[in-house]
Amino acid sequence: MTSAGFRNSRSWFRQADSDIRIADAVLHRLECMEVGDVGCHVAALCAQALEKSLKGYVLLNGATPAMDHRPDKYLVLLLTENGLLRFREHASHLARLFDPPTRGSIKELFDLTPGGMGKAWDLPNTEYPWLGSDEWKHCPCDHLPFQDTATLQGWFNVAKRVCDKLHQLAIVSERAR
Fold it and tell me: Of 9, 26, 65, 162, whose CA is between 20 and 30 Å from 170?
């Protein structure tokens, strides 16, 4: 791995860390926020942090990620023998990190990103209003599932754990080269 690969991945991990810090601040509800403001923004920031961490890790492994909002497609390539993973010593860490519940939470968050479920305009997402009965009547900040504290905390915990571990693996790999 060239030092350019490490430098490129560093930027992605740094921005993911920033997204996690902001998600944490929003989750703990700033005074100016209404209850409905919190959930959709925490979900969006957690999805963005996961996306950037996964893309940074893909760069670390010498590949160029697609610039879309579905980097979860790289999980299979990182977790399979003869896949994308260049750092074989990371395999056991990744297998533990991306257990089925974690993968389910990641998919759930990416499905909520705009376009995460295709080009449908009638599905809940974290950023834009969506159609219901051919009217723009649904809004992320009013969507009840985004107001469930346990769900939000769970998404945050998954995003933080995944981002921290992938960043840690990148740092260890960089020091070892």
Answer: 26
